[in-house]
Amino acid sequence: MHKIILRPGTSDAAAFALHVTEACMRVYAEQTWGTWNGRADLDPSFDKIVQLAGTDIGLIGVERHADHWFLAKLYLLPAYQNRGLGGWLLQRLMQEASLARVPLRLTVLEVNPARRFYERHGFVLTHTISPRHHMEWRGDDLTGQILHISDKNTE
């Protein structure tokens, strides 16, 4: 059985961060702004590299504020998408936010179909300021219902 590990997003991970960011976001950036800037904006203070069986497969960044947490990025390389791994990571984060009693917020580009992924996990659209949808999840009603995911989703 494979395990997902989050390792620190140190400066030596900048090339991987750019690779995964481009793989996940370039097409949506080009659709939105007409260009791709070729930057990853890796922040070692809150970004983590997602590893599966010792292989770097993604990037997650969460800004933890006193009154809310902001999911700045959840990127998985395309070969690892649609396998339940992103949902597994998001559910774990939702459980942590629920225990901390803070809402979890994020933005998603209007052209990005990831909005449906977040809606399936209970996020609601709070408002749109083009080109981004702003979404939020509050654990108040879901405490105790999250994290009923078997380990087979991480294989």
Features:
disordered C terminus, alpha+beta, 3 helices, Aminopeptidase, seven-stranded mixed sheet, 155 residues
Percent strand: 25-35%
Biggest sheet layout: 7 strands, mixed
Overall geometry: globular
CATH class identity: Alpha Beta
Spell out the CATH superfamily: Gcn5-related N-acetyltransferase (GNAT)
Overall average pLDDT: 89
Describe this structure in a few short sentences:
With 155 residues, the protein is α+β, with helices and mostly antiparallel strands. The protein has 3 helices and 7 strands.
Task: Describe the 3D structure.
With 155 residues, the chain is of the alpha+beta class. The protein has a single domain, classed as Gcn5-related N-acetyltransferase (GNAT) (Aminopeptidase, 3-Layer(aba) Sandwich). Helix content is 28%, strand content 30%. The chain is built from three helices and seven strands, in the order βαβββαβαββ. Strands 1-2-3-4-5-7-6 form a seven-stranded mixed beta sheet, sandwiched between helices. The chain is globular and about 40 Å long. It starts with a strand and ends in an 18-residue tail after the last strand.
Topology (elements, then pairings):
Layout: E1 4-8, H1 14-33, E2 47-52, E3 55-64, E4 69-76, H2 85-100, E5 104-109, H3 114-120, E6 124-129, E7 132-137
Parallel strand pairs: 4-5
Antiparallel strand pairs: 1-2, 2-3, 3-4, 5-7, 6-7
